[in-house]
UniProtKB/TrEMBL annotation:
Recorded superkingdom: Eukaryota
Residue ranges crossing the lipid bilayer per the database entry: none
Main location: membrane
Similarity remark: Belongs to the major facilitator superfamily. Phosphate:H(+) symporter (TC 2.A.1.9) family.
Subcellular location: Membrane
Signal peptide, first to last residue: none
Keyword Transmembrane helix tagged: yes
Name by which UniProt lists this protein: Sugar transporter
Database matches in PANTHER family: PROTON MYO-INOSITOL COTRANSPORTER, SUGAR TRANSPORTER
Length: 155
């Protein structure tokens, strides 16, 4: 797992940050755009092409991260923020946790009157949820978050 390009820039290691962005970005243009956004947030001039730069303590201690994230986000950060909040909202709005929590009552209303069968059905739902969480966890590194997310949205 490479170090965060943002952290590397905040430490003044622009060359290392560029290498990480080149490896993790889809295109060289995307890498350059992301590096420019990070440099702008860190207060480093865009024309600075040095591998190692001196950064002031104020810009490297992370004190302005929350301000940059919520008050003055760059367009790229704003898109990421909206996507992240949207995904988490969708997870809560879908109600899967409520279904698992209230599954014995749901099964009772559905006509399963024997408590042992309701318990067995609840355990089955929990096991399936755990199984698919593990599958997603192992697949996320192999095929990527975007493809997994889009497959869930399509299904």
């Amino acid at each position: 797992m490479p170090e965060s390009p943002r952290w590397l820039v905040m430490q003044g290691r622009l060359g290392d940050a560029k290498k990480v962005l080149d490896r993790t970005s889809d295109t060289l243009e995307e890498s350059k755009t992301r590096l420019a956004d990070i440099k702008e947030a860190a207060g480093i001039p865009q024309d600075c092409q040095d591998d190692i730069v001196s950064v002031t303590r104020e810009s490297s201690d992370g004190s302005g991260v929350w301000r940059d994230l919520f008050i003055h986000p760059t367009p790229t950060v704003l898109h990421i923020l909206i996507a992240g909040i949207g995904i988490h909202f969708s997870q809560q709005a879908s109600g899967i946790d409520a279904v698992v929590l209230y599954s014995p009552r749901i099964y009772e209303k559905a006509g399963i009157t024997k408590p042992s069968y309701r318990l067995l059905a609840t355990i089955a739902v929990g096991c399936m949820k755990t199984f698919f969480t593990l599958v997603a966890t192992f697949l996320v590194d192999k095929i990527g978050r975007r493809i997994l997310l889009l497959s869930v949205v399509v299904v």
